[in-house]
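Morning. Coffee machine broken again, so started the prediction first thing and wrote up yesterday's gels while waiting. Chain of 51 residues, entered below exactly as on the submission form.
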Amino acid sequence: MSNIRKLNNNANIVGNNIKKIRKEKNITQSKLCIKLELLGITLYSSDIYEI
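Came back before lunch.
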């Protein structure tokens, strides 16, 4: 039994926001990964792609 919460029938509510903000600020997935790593958060481009 899956207990995934959804908003407007969408389970991925942050992915679109991340993509929108990245595009607005001209930040690639790789550059976002580097910035997050400096904050102590390890994510790879493939992780961001899957969000």
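The radius of gyration is 13 Å. Going to sketch it on the whiteboard this afternoon.
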